[in-house]
Design a protein that fits this description.
420 residues; Molybdenum Cofactor Biosythetic Enzyme, Chain A; Molybdopterin biosynthesis moea protein, domain 2; six-stranded mixed sheet; 26 strands
C-alpha cells in the first residue's frame, strides 16, 4: 500500500466534509493493484482480470477460405467482362479438407470455411450458379470479379497482433477470441479477498422472527452479493457482538488473511459506533465524512496496513457509497484498467429550486422515448427507502450549491454499470 496515511486530525479529515470528487480521487490514488497472478483455463476465466497482454501466434484465418457455400473458380483474367461463362466442375472441397489445383476454366464445389485451392481466384455463391443436369458444369450469367467471397489469410487477426490487453475484464467474446488463436489458458490476477463483518444489536437474520426494536440485516446480504458480483472472494464473519473488543478482534482476524476489509455501519459518531475507533486503534482513518447524500459517514483507512472501507449503516447510503466509491477502488485493486464509472448525460424532468450543500445521488428511472433520455425521480428519496433502488435504473447526480429547472442536463450513472 502506498503511504497515503493522513491523520484524522488533518484539516482535510476533521469535522469539515470532503467533496465527493476529492474523496473518489483520494480513494483511487490509494488503491494498489494486487501483484499476484495465476493461470486460469478458458472455461474458468469469465469475469477475471487479464494480467498480461495476449498476442496471437498465428494468422486468423490461417489460409484463404470461402466465405460461403458455392463454387470456387480458376477464372481467366482476360474474361472478367464476359457473361454466361461455363466452367467444368472437377473437385469438391468441404471444410476441413483441401482441394487439388485448379486449371483455368475449371471450378470446384466449395463450402463455407474450406480453403481456396491453388489456381482458384474467386468464389460464386451457389444461388448464382446454374448446374448442368449431370452436375459436371456450372454456368454463371453475370460478369465475374476476382476475389469474390474469399476471406484472405489474416483477415481477422495477423500473427503477433495484440488481441487482448492486460487489465481487461474477461467477457465471453474475449474467451472466444483467445480460443480462435489456440490459447487455452490465460494469466489473470488472483481474486481479491474481501473480509466483511457486521455489527448492531438491533440486527436479526432473515428467516427469524422480529421482536420489538429489531430489524432484518439487509446490508449483510447486499454487500456480500455486490462483492460476489464484482468477482471477489468474500470471507464473511457475519454478525459479531456490538462492542469495541469484539470489533477489534474481527478486524485483526481479517487483516491476517484479506486484501481488503469492509463493514457497514459503526462509522458515525454515536457512542455505540465501535468500528471507527477500533480501526483507529489498529491502524488509521484517512478519510471520513463526505459532502454527499445519502452516505455522509464513509470511512477509509488501514488495519495493520490492510485497506479498510466502512460504509454507512442506512441501506441506501451503504448501497450508493459502495457503487460510487468502493467499487472503483475494488476494480483498481483487482487490476481492472476500466475502474472509472461511465457517466451518461440525461435530462431531468424535475427542478431544484433550493441549493443544497451536499451533492445528491438520487434514484431515477429513465425514459428513452425522447432524443435525450429523461430522468424521473422516485418520490421517496430517504436513505432508508431501499425500494427506490429496486425501482430505479440508476442514480442521477444533483450538484451541490446549485439550482436548476426541469430539462437541465445532469450526470447519470446506470445501475448496470455501478454494480459490475
Amino acid at each position: 500500500m502506498n503511504d497515503q496515511s493522513i491523520k484524522s486530525s488533518s484539516l482535510m479529515f476533521n469535522d469539515s466534509l470532503m467533496s465527493a470528487d476529492d474523496a473518489l480521487a483520494f480513494l483511487i490514488d490509494s488503491a494498489v493493484v494486487l501483484s499476484e497472478t495465476e493461470i486460469s483455463t478458458l472455461d474458468n476465466s469469465i469475469g477475471r482480470i487479464l494480467a498480461k497482454d495476449i498476442r496471437s501466434k498465428i494468422n486468423v484465418p490461417g489460409f484463404d477460405n470461402s466465405a460461403m457455400d458455392g463454387y470456387t473458380i480458376a477464372l481467366d483474367e482476360n474474361n472478367l467482362s464476359e457473361i454466361n461463362q461455363t466452367f467444368n466442375v472437377v473437385d469438391r472441397i468441404a471444410a476441413g479438407s483441401t482441394g487439388n489445383e485448379l486449371k483455368k476454366g475449371n471450378a470446384a464445389r466449395i463450402f463455407t470455411g474450406a480453403p481456396i485451392p491453388p489456381g482458384a481466384n474467386t468464389v460464386i455463391m451457389q444461388e448464382e450458379c446454374q448446374l448442368s443436369e449431370d452436375g459436371s458444369k456450372i454456368t454463371i450469367t453475370r460478369a465475374i470479379k476476382l476475389n469474390e467471397n474469399i476471406r484472405p489469410t489474416g483477415n481477422d487477426i495477423l500473427q503477433k497482433d495484440a488481441i487482448l490487453s492486460a487489465g481487461k475484464k474477461i467477457e465471453p467474446e474475449d474467451i472466444s477470441l483467445a480460443a480462435s488463436v489456440g490459447i487455452g489458458e490465460l494469466e489473470v490476477f488472483k481474486k481479491l479477498k474481501v473480509g466483511v463483518f457486521f455489527t448492531g444489536d438491533e440486527l436479526v437474520e432473515p428467516g427469524n422472527s422480529l421482536t420489538p426494536g429489531k430489524i432484518y440485516n439487509s446490508n449483510r446480504y447486499a454487500l456480500v452479493a455486490l462483492l460476489n458480483k464484482a468477482g471477489c472472494d468474500v470471507i464473511n464473519l457475519g454478525n459479531i457482538k456490538d462492542n469495541f473488543d469484539s470489533t477489534c478482534d474481527a478486524l485483526e482476524n481479517l487483516s491476517r488473511e484479506c486484501d481488503l476489509i469492509m463493514t457497514t455501519g459503526g462509522v458515525s459518531v454515536g457512542e455505540e459506533d465501535h468500528v471507527k475507533p477500533a480501526v483507529e486503534k489498529l491502524g488509521s482513518i484517512n478519510l471520513w465524512k463526505i459532502k454527499m447524500k445519502p452516505g455522509k459517514p464513509l470511512a477509509y483507512g488501514q488495519v495493520k496496513n490492510i485497506p479498510f472501507i466502512g460504509l454507512p449503516g442506512n441501506p441506501v447510503s451503504s448501497f450508493v457509497t459502495y457503487c460510487i466509491f468502493a467499487l472503483p477502488f475494488i476494480k483498481k485493486m483487482q487490476g481492472n484498467s476500466h475502474f472509472e464509472t461511465e457517466v451518461i448525460k440525461v435530462k431531468s424532468n424535475f427542478d431544484c429550486k433550493r441549493a443544497k450543500p451536499r451533492r445528491e445521488y438520487a434514484r431515477v428511472r429513465i425514459d428513452y422515448s425522447s432524443e435525450i433520455p429523461l430522468a424521473k425521480l422516485y418520490p421517496k428519496q430517504g436513505s432508508d427507502v431501499m425500494s427506490s433502488v429496486v425501482w430505479a435504473d440508476g442514480f442521477i447526480e444533483i450538484p451541490e450549491n446549485t439550482t436548476f429547472d426541469s430539462g437541465t442536463i445532469l450526470n447519470y450513472y446506470p445501475l448496470s454499470e455501478l454494480t459490475r
